[in-house]
Design brief:
Structural class: mainly alpha
Number of helices: 7
Helix content: 40-55%
Order of helices and strands: HEEEEHHHHHH
Distance between the termini: 75 Å
Length: about 190
């Protein structure tokens, strides 16, 4: 058996295995199932949204196809948002801006707002589209639709405690800082 150095062949093999993963002609989108989050703090009560550990599907688009897909998705989100605004306006009208109780207003749902009542076509989606915070009921509905049968109620209490703690930020200094009494100064940070 001949003793030939293998270092060069190992290096060559590593070079061959290394492929470039950046492509500028396509977009790869990984889809994940929704799960209860435990990683973010929504501005309203309830549970947070998260995603599964592993993706459940992958889709590849050309740049043009991806732009069209985004346009369709954004229009649908905009349509839902405009419907919710219209529903809220109808309820406010029936309750005289919330000052009068109305059984009719209480019974209204998104199905009561027709697509003819909203004008998505004359709205520039790119100018209007932005992420909207989801209300608690909507987040719960999304989790249920994704197959989450048991929503951990403890997260609701933990998130509430975090939101409250964020309101109590800084120190009680007024006009000037007394380093001996200032909680910020004692913690080694600039006086808030």
């Amino acid at each position: 058996a001949s003793l030939t150095p293998t270092a060069t062949s190992i290096l060559k093999r590593q070079k061959q295995l290394c492929r470039k993963n950046v492509r500028f002609d396509q977009v790869t989108v990984y889809y994940f199932a929704r799960r209860q989050g435990f990683t973010s703090v929504p501005s309203q009560g309830g549970s947070s949204l998260g995603m599964a550990q592993r993706h459940n599907s992958v889709r590849r688009y050309t740049l043009c196809e991806f732009a069209q897909e985004q346009e369709v998705n954004h229009r649908e989100i905009l349509r839902e948002h405009l419907k919710e605004e219209k529903l809220h306006a109808k309820k406010m009208k029936l309750t005289k801006n919330g000052t009068v109780e109305s059984e009719e207003a209480d019974g209204l749902t998104l199905e009561d707002v027709s697509d003819d009542d909203i004008d998505v076509e004359n709205v520039e989606v790119d100018d209007y589209f932005f992420l909207q915070p989801l209300p608690t009921k909507r987040r719960r509905a999304l989790l249920r639709a994704s197959g989450v049968h048991r929503i951990d109620a403890e997260e609701k209490q933990e998130l509430r405690a975090i939101r409250l703690s964020r309101e109590e930020c800084g120190c009680d200094c007024r006009l000037y800082c007394d380093p001996e009494a200032c909680a910020c100064s004692q913690a080694g940070i600039k006086c808030q």
